[in-house]
What we know:
Structural class: mainly alpha
Number of helices: 7
Helix content: 40-55%
Number of strands: 0
Distance between the termini: 13 Å
Order of helices and strands: HHHHHHH
Low-confidence stretches: 4-10, 131-136
Amino acid sequence: DADLMARRVSLAAYCETPEMLSGRRIDERVDIFSGGCVLYFASTGIHPFVASARPQTSLATIACKLKYPKKLFTKASVSFVAFLKAVLSKDPQSRPSAHGCVEAFSTIIKPALYSVAEMEMIIDACSALSIRPHCS
Length: 136
């Protein structure tokens, strides 16, 4: 039950993707979008699509008309904002792959705490542990 899951895992309701909410076919790119929501929130302290109630949040996510106000991204590089725009693309086909994210993100945070190979290992380990949504 999606509503029960959303109540139990508070972040779940705020990391749904436009394609999930529209009833379209989903694949691993939902994880890229959800990760982008978390990264946007971690960077700004504001969820990219949150509204006063869950139905409005869902509508905002489906519309996916996200803004990147300079006041929220004063310390962010142009590359970082471009990366966020890519992972939060409404069109799943336009989102980078997991490995594309690792490569892009590693150039943004250079010098990084982790090498690209180490980041790929972390992504692979996280992917192996993640629970994929059940598609009927």
